[in-house]
């Protein structure tokens, strides 16, 4: 049975593309096998509904940009990034492509202090939160597929007001979400920009046949085994983190099976550990209460020098320099 992971709120957001035009949403719901717009749905159902809405309004972006994203644009976007040298190269190509297609909002990739930011700007007033979510979903869904792993986010900002009674926005991204911000942006560690795309022309054909349902599940933070491991590690001091063999035993899996299942989710245990350590390191350095050596010990490093090398790799700067910058 398909897991119903998409909230009713996101279903209603998508259907609004039809009701704003005076169109009956019933055909789109029927095409997706959805009884009503007030229920949670699976990613496959949502994907079918998205395709049905696209066919009805001839816009893959739900009519939320300055210009329509004509059917076939998503296909061309994937073609444009397929042979990029790195994730950074792919992102810059994708942002340029979407700027030409949508006109507004327009995205820009910025880097500072070991962080990568994708910033969206609007010429006029801010758009609906669903417009920004659709942009992130399309862009990052393709990027995660291209490099074969989820890119963990550190912060998501919306320039618009928060939709009422919609906690699903906070749950979807797996990172702190803030509304009424000066600009819309998402933030992740800049070292991911050096990842190498791994997909072929043949793989792209399979990806496109399953789109857009596949980007909904690939991009979600709270999916599968990696989410369970992430939650366990966050609840445990890093110096007490269990080994992969111990985790596998606790899950009643072989170590090889655990590695394979994490790889299928675009993850590895070392990547999850680094993600958590980096987030905790940034917080402790910014607070300024602990010495760098004490932070290293709390994060499970036997020597401060090992933490120094890891932090330099993550951010491009030393722990001491990062602290100085954050404390002004």
Structural class: alpha+beta
Quick check: average pLDDT?
A: 90
* Rg value: 21 Å
Fraction of helical residues: 40-55%
Please state how the strands of the largest beta sheet are arranged side by side: 1-2-5-3-4
In total, the number of strands is: 5
Distance separating the two termini: 54 Å
Flag low-confidence runs: none
SSE ordering? HHHHHEEHEHEEHHHHHHHHH
- What is the number of helices? 16
The global form is globular
Strand content: 5-15%
Total discrete domains:
2
Biggest sheet features: 5 strands, mixed
InterPro entries: AraC-type_N, Homeodomain-like_sf, HTH_AraC, Tscrpt_reg_AraC-type_HTH
Pfam family, one: HTH_18
Coiled coil: 269-296
Transmembrane segments: 130-148
Care to describe what's here?
The chain crosses the membrane at residues 130-148. Keywords: Coiled coil, DNA-binding, Membrane, Transcription, Transcription regulation, Transmembrane, Transmembrane helix. Pfam families: Arabinose_bd, HTH_18. There is one protein chain. This protein has 328 residues and is of the alpha+beta class. It folds into 2 domains: 68-203, no CATH class; 223-326, Arc Repressor Mutant, subunit A (Orthogonal Bundle). It is 53% helix and 8% strand. The protein has helices at 8-19, 26-32, 43-57, 73-81, 87-102, 129-147, 168-173, 201-210, 213-219, 224-234, 244-250, 255-264, 269-287, 292-298, 304-315, 319-326; strands at residues 106-112, 115-121, 153-157, 177-178, 184-189.
